[in-house]
Predict the structure of ABC transporter ATP-binding protein.
Amino acid sequence: MAEIVVETRGLTKVYRDFWGRKKKTALNALDLTIEKGEIFGLLGPNGSGKTTTIKLLLGLLFPSGGDAFVFGQPAAKVEKNEKIGYLPEESYLYRFLNAEETLDFYGRLFDIPSAVREKRAAELIDTVGLSNDKKRVLREYSKGMRQRIGLAQALINDPDLVILDEPTSGLDPLGTRWMKDLILDLKKKGKTILMCSHRLDDVQDVCDRIAILYGGDLQELGQVNKLVEDQKRLEIRATGLQLNDGLKHDLAAVIEKHGGKLEAFGHPTTTLEDLFLRIVDESKARPGRRYLPPTEEAKK
């Protein structure tokens, strides 16, 4: 059994006005699990409940209903945050500090010993590519550079769970590729990553599974490669056919008869962006639409 790092059960957040009247349901009965070592993408347009979900997991908000667990502990327990690294969309860093001072400050918050703190800060500054700018104060940094030092801050405590909100925001194409490679490297080191992003190509490049939210409701959940797979067509662009070993054997025989070799056999994929826009359009057209897990019979 895979180890569950994050779990929500009917997690709900309702915002109310001064008189207690309901203003908005930001999150409605969210059920999902995130396993150790996976990269999980949380997607949705603005106001869909992504940030609310993150704040509930960090214990920055209290739920109106349901439960959230991180490392098997209730999300409201702040002790579990010692094993979490968080990069918000807008980093709230002290701009009068330089990179070294910033990481030293956050390392002190985690009670990291001085020698370990200094060594880890130097490694992270090198990792995020700021070695030549480590003495500059942060107010002189570009947005992309602030994003890099923000990531280093999120990793100073060597967290087991890394939460990234728009990690490629402000980065140029080279920086974006670097960020995606770093996220994949964190996975190789056994870290669990939860990321939100509006850049769907980035999500498709790195995420194992995704959840799509709209209007506070979970609309889709599953593996990226399965969700973007087009089950109605084959790579040979034939319609009305389904995959099976017999078909593969016959096709391979025909292709080899004509001097070729069957290299790929399967469903073509659409893009995550196309899937995302379709889910949002369907959600608008069908108010109250919610994702329901397939029944055992459907799985068969």
